[in-house]
Specification:
Layout lengths: L8 H17 L4 E6 L2 E7 L8 E5 L2 E7 L1 H21 L7 H18 L6 E7 L8 E5 L5 E4 L2 E4 L3 H11 L6 H14 L13 E7 L7 E3 L2 H8 L1
Antiparallel strand pairs: 1-2, 1-8, 2-9, 3-4, 4-5, 5-6, 6-7, 9-10
Length: about 230
């Protein structure tokens, strides 16, 4: 009778983590920044149909990198959870923090209990009545949650972009300043050499503080060309 191979739990977890990181590293980066009137999302994404950035609820949005089918499942689950909670209780009871916690539990369960982890990294962002109330939560493939301030970068070039943002981003930036900074960094650190990205290669959306109730809006490519000058 042959003996089964033994693999330690530590090795299994390490292998899963390495597998997920490699999948995420192949994805094109996404940058999320706070600006003076809300939060801007900028993704390198030439597709008009397969969105990396989406609305979840009135003041909450979602951005992701990794395998599209996996983060789309998470997005749909988040929309359903937010709708159910808002309908059952009150719209004000739906918060970015509660959605981030729900996503963390889901990702953590998938990572520990299934053979293949999700190859995704996501951000849940909520725009507040003032800039001090804005919330950014970054969630990784194993369910870890980080409460970020000011900006977040995800994807294959996240480390280099985050390092650049730490010196170039500042509080109170205008939309044009924040947008141009994000596009410049995505072009410099895209992993294919320095490039100049045009409106046709970008997906951009906003959570605008001043909009009534539903604060999410997408920026069209024509409008994006105007903003980028």
């Amino acid at each position: 009778m042959s003996m089964p191979f033994y693999v330690s739990p530590e090795q299994i977890i390490k292998d899963k983590a390495d597998y997920a990181r490699k999948g995420i590293a192949r994805g094109r980066s996404v940058i999320v920044e706070e600006y003076d009137q809300g939060i801007v999302f900028v993704a390198e994404n030439p597709s008009r149909a397969l969105h990396k950035i989406s609305e979840i609820y009135d003041r909450i949005a979602f951005a992701a990198v990794g395998k599209y089918n996996e983060f789309e499942n998470l997005r749909v689950a988040g929309v359903r959870l937010a709708d159910m909670r808002g309908y059952s209780y009150d719209r004000r009871d739906v918060s970015g923090r509660s959605l981030a916690n729900a996503y963390a539990q889901t990702l953590g369960t998938i990572f520990t209990e299934t053979p293949k982890p999700y190859e995704v990294e996501i951000v849940v962002a909520e725009v507040g009545q003032t800039s001090e109330d804005d919330q950014l939560y970054r969630l990784t493939f194993d369910g870890s949650v980080a409460d970020e301030h000011g900006y977040v970068a995800m994807g294959g070039s996240a480390e280099a972009i985050t390092l650049a943002l730490s010196t170039e981003w500042r509080e109170g930036m205008t939309l044009v300043e924040a947008l141009r900074l994000a596009v410049d960094l995505l072009g410099k650190h895209g992993g294919e050499g320095e490039r100049q990205l045009g409106p046709g290669e970008l997906e951009v959306a906003l959570l605008e503080r001043s909009r009534p109730r539903r604060t999410f809006s997408r920026i069209s490519r024509a409008r994006l060309a105007e903003l980028l000058g």
